[in-house]
## 1
Amino acid sequence: MAQNEAVATQDTLVAVPNKRAKRMIQLELAKQLQKTFFSPAIFSIDEFVHELSPYKNLSDIELQIELYNLCRKQNFPRCADFIQFLSWAPAFLSDINEIDMQLTDPQAIFTNILQIKEIEEAFQDSKAEKTTPETSRKSEYLRFYEALYPLYQAFNQQLMEKGCGYNGAIYRDEAAHVATYASALPYKRYIFAGFNTLSPAEIAIVKWLHQHCNAELYFDLDRFYERHFLDKFIKPIQNELNLSEIETIGNDYGTISKQIRLTGVSKTTTQLLCAIEKLHAIERKQGHLNDTVLVLADEKMVLPFVHLYDHTNANLTMGYPFAATPAATLFNGWFDLYINALQFMSEQRSDTTLFSAKELFSFLRNPILQEIIGNTTSDGFAAIEKLQHRRLLFVSLPEIEKVIAEWLPAVTEKPPVLPQFINFALKLLNSIDKASPHSATVQLLLKDVQKLALQLSNSRIDSDIRTACYLVKQLMSSLTIPFKGDFAHGLQVMGVLETRMLDFKNVIVVGLNEGVLPKRKSHNTLLLYDVKQHFGSPSEQHKESVFACHFFHLLQRAEDITLIYDTDSEGTLAEPSRFISQLQYEVKVRGLQDRIEITEEHLSILPKLNNSNSRIQIIKNKRIMEKIRNISFSASALNCYMLCPLKFYLQYVEKLVQAQAVVEPLQANIIGSVFHRILEKVLNGYLAACNRSAYIQDFTNNLTLHIAQAMNSQPELSEADFSRGKYYMAGQILDKMIRNYLKCIPAELSRARIIGVEIGLNHTLPVNGGSVHLKGIADRVEEENGTLAVLDYKTGRTDAGELKYSSMETLFSDIKQAKLFQLLFYLFLYQKDKSEATAFKTAQVKAGIVCVREAVSGNSRYIKMASSFPNSDSTLITKELLSEFETCLIRLINHILDTGIPFVQTDREEHCQYCDFSMICVSSSLSTS
């Protein structure tokens, strides 16, 4: 264009594969002309076709509504309601779109499908006796396939009469009438550039323009992949358009030196961190990222990427998914509340609206609602806290204060759901600060939902809750929030299809796994594979070849290439893409090792962000040291410090706790607390009873009452409803556990003398610069034949190996020895405690765990004693061992008190799995996918 002065640029039309290529052509043209000029008309191929066509392209939802209206009018099978219709309609729309894009004969395809189905049914009939209901079902089944082609015809006719259509129909119509539509075009020169693949409909359009308007075609090919793609993609275009042989085929793979790194790492986040580390290295070397592209094989990876990388100066062509915004979470929560409340009302045959407490509090904790009704002084926050404190599994509408209830859906059997949802969104919009980013996201969806509601109303489709939920969620999944960026400067971030016609010096591809690139089969179809293949529809293999073409073109002129794939099989196949194997094979076969160097590595460690120390460090200042000095150290606190110093700081120094949540089901620690409370009552009563056998029997008879009293005494369960649901089930579990264990108590206490139950233990331990307070509670202390034993009750599982002593170093470093550490800690405190409850002292001491679960299951060795020597079965804890324990305990606490040692998070990922603070800890948040 720059060299052709015979045709002015404004008289030229250029068609390219995508919008990104369009912008790059404008930029390059400006560089070459170096003067003011009128830009040529540059369209993506899709824009060009729709610019020519008189028909409007409808969205997926609009097409579904149009098709549903037609099906109702024709009494089409499988169309009892909109939800049943949706079970097959998306596949049908996808199939006819492909049929039209390929210009295949729809009547022949649907006739073949029907004949195959008839043969299948006839074969089945010959193997089994016919029954009237079965015959009726098969008749309906065949009637569905018989009606597909008439439906296709009627649907296209209905759309065309309304001046609209779906993408494939518009392409087919334009291929048939291009002479009429193109006659009005004002251009003198037509250029089609970068189309290494074209559908039959696109070829028909380009063919007419080539024959009648001398349209020019430019291909970008390389000898490296010539034999793979030339015959498959280029030859059909050449033959159809009667083009001469392509003479200019490049040899960039053979002349441009390339450094290719293949990197296998585990998890999505780690892949992105490796990519970010590479970006920083390129920026340090070049001083900019102007000729660098980051390609996301799976475009869903854009979400973690924008949270990991400062993308201020990056250009992201894909938008931020609306589905990942707080607004989407809030709207999903609104529908979940509605659907589940309606289902519960139906099952209970009740008119009272009951909301799941877990879903309700999740809904109310959404940051948008918190911004409106939840702050530390508002009535709304107080109402939420009050309601949450009651620990209900289900909350009825009358129990919810007005400040909360006004945001909840009004649940009825046949409501106008979409109008109610729109009112909810409008109320949100009016209540949110207009400067808040939430305002823009709510408004983005609201506009489309209002349009949808109008379409449903005009079509007289009942927007029941299931229909409304499906359609709104479909809208949310398709919406994206655009990023701001410069397509000519800085890092470019895009998907594979957007890289067509673009060249970059530095290329980083993330997520290059089999099943991701090339993609797996992505949609359902009503068409059989053999039928599609017979009529020339593109197979999955053909589509994979198209992506291979794009992938190898992306690397064609690149010099520094990093290909990263996932080695973890949890989310994807832990297998590199076949494109990597093909690249390695081609380089070797063509003898290009001197030009293209391929290195491979597998990483198992987490890269550091921006090459800086990303570990959190809390320096122990004066304020923190004062708080530490006031801590009463328990075995749990010390185990917590050994597990993760940062967790100890957050939990015991700053005393951070999670917001109260519905306990569903009961947490193990609460079940354990209830059990301990009941057992304390049993043992104290048993020891004081004159007739112990009668006492056990009486306690057993009234056990249900005792459990209810113990559960109600727990602050978390004070207002819980134990008559139904998972609280009831938890009560039954406790009942069975305690009832069976009561049978073991007489035999236990006949062999030993109980010294005390739930004994509080205290000791002031001298340490560097002063002393600290130690505390604990011994569940049971007994004496048998002169030997004192400190016992701890556990309702969970305990393996004997956890109580095997190996060394003091292991005891103070291995979290698997936490139970043994706790036992020795209690035994140490008992020996040091000077209260009346611990007056009985003896030289021979033991410690062990009463495994209630094993006692209930009939294991006679349910009391497991701690060992005292490595590789020994001896259970006597020596004075020397306790003395060594005290020395190490002092060393541990001095470590906590050392102002020169900051609190840092653990470097062992398995310790973070169930941590309450994982969301605010860099270590755990970066190691998840």
Note: The first strand starts at residue 12 and ends at 16.
## 2
Amino acid sequence: MNAAAALLLLSLSASQLAVSPDQPLPYSYVDEPLVVEVVPDFSGTARLSGTVETESKEQAARFDEGELSFAAGRPYWFALKNLPERTGFFSLQVSIDVPEGAQELRQTFSRVRRTAGEYHLPLFGVQAGDSPEVLRALKGIPLSTLRVDMTQEGALERAKRYLDAGFQIVPYVDATAVPDPAEHVAQLAAELCDGVARWEVYAGDSVPVLASIIQALRTAGCATPLTMAARDVDQFDAMMKKGLGNVVRSVAVSANGQAGWTVEAVHRMAEHAGFEDWTLYAMLDATAESGDQPSLLKSIFRAWAQGYAEVGFNASAVYGDNGLSRVFNQLNALTYRLGPMRFAGSLPLKAEITNYLFTSGADWYLALWSEGADQSVVLQPGDAMRVEAFDQYNNSVAITAQDNGDLQINATQRPVYLTGRGGKFFEQAARAQAIKLASQLVQRKDIADAIGNEVRLAVAAVPGNKGMLKEREQFFTLIRTLPRIEQQWHAGDLPRPVAASTIAHLTRLIRQLAVMEQLRGEPFIEPLSDTLARCKEYQAFYLTSSSGSDDTFERGDWLLNEVRRLMDEAQSLSDAGRRIEASAVAALAEWRARGLEFAAQAGDPVQVAEAPVEEVALELPAVPPAPVPGAPAESTEGEGIPGETIIHSVQRGDTLGGIAAKYKVGLSDLLKWNKLTTKSTLRIGQKITIQGSEPAAAPTPPAPAPEPEASPVAPAPVPEAASAPEPAPAPEPERESEPAPAPEPKPVPEAQQEVPAGASTVHVIKRGDTLGGVADKYGVPLSDLLKWNNLTRRSTLNIGQEIKIRPAEGAAAKSKPEPAAATTNREQEDQRDPGKVIHTVERNDTTHSIAEQYGVKEEDFRKWNGIRAGAQLARGKQYVVYVSGNAPEKSGGGGKTISHTVQRGDTPYEIAKKYGVSVDDFLKWNKLTKKSVLHIGEKYVIYKQ
């Protein structure tokens, strides 16, 4: 061998090999060619060939690029297009052959499926560290949220890097380790609030500390929710008895190795304190895989099945010394298949077979594995369609169809997934869950006594009837019980631990029985739209009749959100073809909504002496209101200022707006005189001060309508206002002098009202009014209406409340003008397109509720934003809404701009497919035609909403 040849071989040792060089990490998508880069450190001619092998050393492909001319340091790219559509770990081997010798180059890489960018699994990363590779791997799953321990050194800078990388964060704060926790969190909020998904705070056993932090966040303008971090289950129970539920409604715990930390235990403690539901976040200790056993994946499934809303795991598990880990591939596969589904139960299989069923509409996803040796499992899917099976990496798995329609599959210690649509899995899981819930319910003597004999017999019949009720009438017997228990709770006739537990247990059982109603096959006579319309009437009644506190969680507010959630669920089920189940869920929503009338009248449920729950009265720190000139001094009934002050004693049914109207004073004045807000809670017997005014004759309350009797097929119509029982007449307020009534101007019909240019007018809230309706009536943007009245979109309206209408300078506002484009304080109108609104997702938002809010079709909203049906929306993400219903043609004027550099083998079709846009749009944006030739290195633009 001559010297030149020896030098050539020596130089080959520095040659480099890379997979997917345009990707931040060595992974590629199965729907794209595998791009390979070779960078030789020599100049000359060589033959390039090689193979691609799976993790099990099976050959997936062989290639031969032939004789090529190389230049030292100049990359050579080629694409492998014949790889099998298989995901997982692969090894690429490349041989560079010259006459004098050869060198082998090797690179491992992952192949995954492209996930829908708008959906993220209910997971968050813990201890992500500072590795850019870890953050890039998390983006490839994709994962959206990282927890940051703010007690660690450099935590603030780390949190900002996560935000800059496109993540949301969960800042963890140890309030026991800082001198002034409220000020400390407020300072963090000033730096981080826009990117915070939720705050997580450990406050020892101090509920007031949590309350002060929440107040500090509000003062700082950061409305992000706060979660309590708990270290001990007994500590959590003690804090619940101190009134924790009036401050926060979620807790974050370690789900491994903590005795007593179960979702059932937390719900039991919460219900005993009077709170029907609680949100839990789990943090897992498992961080890595042992051999080929996906222990972390199994732990995540178990946590979801137990009821944890989100599960945290050690984020560094996705990337290690050897590159991407199995966890990366497993979670990517899970995101692709699972989508926006909820846990529905488990099938009654062998004890050693663990299985979890998730559903969304008519679609289902079943995860199963063996806890011991491999074994065959027989499943009965019924008439399910499109049944497929996959391994933990998303590769197809063989299933055997038997003559009777059953399916046979081999279960190993590694999870196997089945997907499909329709069939019997829904009913099998619901039946097992219903039997379990019914058995638990009848064993609780306190609940059995509360529900009465008829309901108790119906519940007791569920296990014997294999999870079903014999008649539809029994289904309504259970549902009708819910508002009755709610009424007894608020009236003080039933201890709240019993009432909350009874309602919670019954609701869980009824939801499972709703699935069984689909199996019954007997349609509901009542149209779904009518049931949902009645739900909205009850919601409107609550919003215009209740008053509450900004500083605590009201029962009615929680119940209002629960009704909305059930309504959305019913609509989604109907859209998916499960119309009987949809009607059953809608009926549950309606009868839950009937409880709103009691919440509206009584505020917080009355606590009875028979079952006291220890509490502390929480006084959240607030800035004292400025003195109001002329406001009366604090006084008690009969001790008012002579000639000026009236003391009103609150009666059942009173509202702030009603009191203001009764005494002909402005609601804003009434609130100032009594240091209240529009959401303050009124208590029976509470003294309200009214500065001198002539009382009007008390309006005659509407006669209470009898509670509708529900038939087995259709509940009775809802009364117009869903009124509570008739309140006792209010006594004439004591007063020391009778001021002369001020002369009243002759009223002008609203339809004739005009507002002079630059002036203001006042709208008095009537039953059924909403903020959006008032804004539309006067032709003003809702965002302006909220600003003028210091309100938010969730502010409660009271009958008689005065709303200021302030038109633009120099313009006259008339009643019933042309409708203005809908907007809220959460949306910003695009000035270039007045019909375009940017909506920022809030908690509980769905594609259906957003579309309904703006009066557009749900399918149009999904199309405008590239959202697939049933997708969950990430809180804080922004979507476009065209309130006119017509989206303009794409012109590149909005959304995200992407620059694509042409690689070897690129075509307009392949580029458009890669970024999920149409070929026609891509050509139009870049002024190309279908005959245009693309050259390597050219840059083209892609616009993504």
Note: Residues 32 and 910 are 8 Å apart (CA to CA).
